[in-house]
Design a protein that fits this description.
This protein has 110 residues and is mainly α. Helix content is 87%, strand content 0%. Helix 1 (2-11) packs across helix 3 (20-40) and helix 4 packs antiparallel against helix 5 (78-109).
């Protein structure tokens, strides 16, 4: 939530963004709005699990390995390339299993 709060604070005029109470008010409003969304959507936890299982694995495991290979290019050793491909494959399998699990849980509840 911190990046969202900082982005909102950057949009505020300088006289508001320097005030401690605006700092607290913006963060409190973000937390309360998240709480309202969680209460209003019946399967919010399952939807968040679906999003997390797909995008978290892709951003934390798959993308760094792909970027590593892209940045090094021809300088990467064969071992580095093989390990990066193995990490990407394991990440994709994990993302598929997690997404399947989340979708099946969502289908059971719905």
């Amino acid at each position: 939530m911190n990046p969202l709060a900082r982005s909102i604070e950057e949009l505020l005029p300088a006289r508001f963004s320097d005030n401690f109470w605006w700092f607290i008010s913006v963060r409190t409003a973000i937390v309360l709005s998240s709480l309202c969304v969680a209460f209003l959507l019946p399967f919010f936890g399952l939807v968040m699990a679906l999003i997390g299982s797909l995008f978290s694995i892709l951003m934390a495991i798959v993308m760094p390995a792909l970027c590593f290979v892209k940045i090094l290019g021809k300088k990467a050793t064969r071992t580095q390339v093989v390990l990066s491909i193995a990490i990407v494959a394991l990440g994709l399998v994990s993302a598929c299993v997690g997404t399947y699990n989340s979708v099946s849980d969502l289908a059971k509840k719905y």
